[in-house]
Design goal:
The chain contains one helix and ten strands. It is mainly beta. The chain has a single domain, classed as Acid Proteases (Cathepsin D, subunit A, domain 1, Beta Barrel), CATH 2.40.70.10. A six-stranded mixed beta barrel has the order 2-3-8-4-7-6.
Length: about 120
Amino acid sequence: MIEGVVNAAYEPVVTLAVQGPSGPAREIEAVIDTGFTGFLTLPPGLVSELGLPFLTGNRATLADGSEVTFPSYGIVVLWDGQPVYTEADAADTTPLVGMRLLDRHDLSIQVRDGGRVVIQARE
């Protein structure tokens, strides 16, 4: 189970440990974005810091309808206590957890400032 909190801006936030191919893990705060169908986004500076390997470019349609391509990188995320190799798109935004990383999990959010956020693997 992964637990987090709803911040003052009413964003559900969780703390995750992320790691590149070499070097120590780094903890980040990431906002859960149910409108994002990818796995994870990270700022380009963090992608460089972690030395993440480039995988591909992922096309995305933004909320304003515009289409963009984000470079995607391989990353290890400590997810529910287990290291998971997945991909992260480099984007100039707050780190985001997308629906593909939440696949096969239940998400519960107490929608209020300071509310509890719980991500739990489906049995």
